[in-house]
């Protein structure tokens, strides 16, 4: 037995040593941004740090806990000169980080007063393959939208610098939220992308659908009255907010009809129940003919 155990144990110890050495490298917090709905953004820099879209890191803040490591998806793009995470305040550790960064104070926080941060990573996820497809469906639920912030930023940088070599031609973006608060910190990015795509006369490149799943049409009556206005009254986007849950069967059939003979990547960051639904739809809407349309399902969960 020991012959089978020694090899894997040696590799495991090597990995732990590399991760320990990597987590001891100095990390500098360059900016702390407070977003609505008790969400903070930490922008950081670390020597030799390289990332790809959709990857995640483990973060430790000794001022809060000397032993706890927590995973966070990177929300910055590889083209930016820093890396960032968005942290929603929902528990004791995130509350401690919120206070340690001075976000509970009104006055300006000096940089030297910010807590020390240890970072281990980055680690790969399925979202890295998004540029391998010409057409993709991105589905985020709640705070699960964070990896797609990185994807959409990177797409924009690549599109601006060399659009002809960008294999990705069409993005269908779905964001499911229970209430309106979660829109506030992410809508700015969508508004910027929407405006810039229109300036370049390529508004069809990004098709997005935002759903308020915690509301029904009765609760949304007031906003439906303003449906004819140029911009949505909730998000400020030209695309109107939808209510309830999407009919995934219709969505898949519509996309399949618009892109016959294509390999379409389906990427999800959300709960297991939604993952099962999208996986079944990806299978049922893929054709047996190799030359037909095929949906390739990818997911990540924490």
From TrEMBL:
Organism of this sequence: Climacteris rufus (rufous treecreeper)
Gene responsible for this protein: Cybb
Membrane-traversing stretches: none
Stored SUPFAM superfamilies: Ferredoxin reductase-like, C-terminal NADP-linked domain, Riboflavin synthase domain-like
An individual GO BP term: monoatomic ion transmembrane transport
Name of this protein: NADPH oxidase 2
Keywords on record: Cell membrane, Electron transport, FAD, Flavoprotein, Glycoprotein, Heme, Ion channel, Ion transport, Iron, Isopeptide bond, Membrane, Metal-binding, NADP, Oxidoreductase, Phosphoprotein, Transmembrane, Transmembrane helix, Transport, Ubl conjugation, Voltage-gated channel
Chief place where the protein resides: membrane
Topology in membrane: Multi-pass membrane protein
Residues covered by the FAD-binding FR-type domain: 19-129
Cofactors, names only: FAD
Catalytic reaction list: NADPH + 2 O2 = 2 superoxide + NADP(+) + H(+)
Subcellular location: Cell membrane
Cellular component terms (Gene Ontology): monoatomic ion channel complex; NADPH oxidase complex
Database matches in CDD domains: NOX_Duox_like_FAD_NADP
Chain's role: Catalytic subunit of the phagocyte NADPH oxidase complex that mediates the transfer of electrons from cytosolic NADPH to O2 to produce the superoxide anion (O2(-)). In the activated complex, electrons are first transferred from NADPH to flavin adenine dinucleotide (FAD) and subsequently transferred via two heme molecules to molecular oxygen, producing superoxide through an outer-sphere reaction.
